[in-house]
Amino acid sequence: MAIKKEVIRLPGAAAPSGGAAPLSPAIRAGDFVFVSGQPPRDPASGKMVSGDIEAQTRQVLENVKALLEAAGSSMDKVVNATVYCSNSAYFNRVNAVYRTYFPADAPPTRTFVTVGSWPGEFDIEIACIAIG
Question: Does the pTM exceed 0.70?
Fold first, then answer.
């Protein structure tokens, strides 16, 4: 039996500027939703949110939440998350925002990776897998 693959996009979201990478924002495959790494991009304007790591983290998690909801899932159904951050010194500050988006009694498994840099002017990106 072949598993059906469905691309999930946010209706009304601006196209990424600067030549988008060849990826889908999210994919529903079987009973799971896979969300690509989300940067702190405002979906309406397509521009990166400036500000401190808390503001960037909040925007990233709002993007993840919106994609999950568009796929018929939710933040409480996330089973795994990977956080990519430009500076390990942001760990506790990211956690302060992160914990407000996930249930305290059963947060998802998670990996926190410090990265040197990547294209764009932002400090955090989060990818996740959720139950659909």
Answer: yes
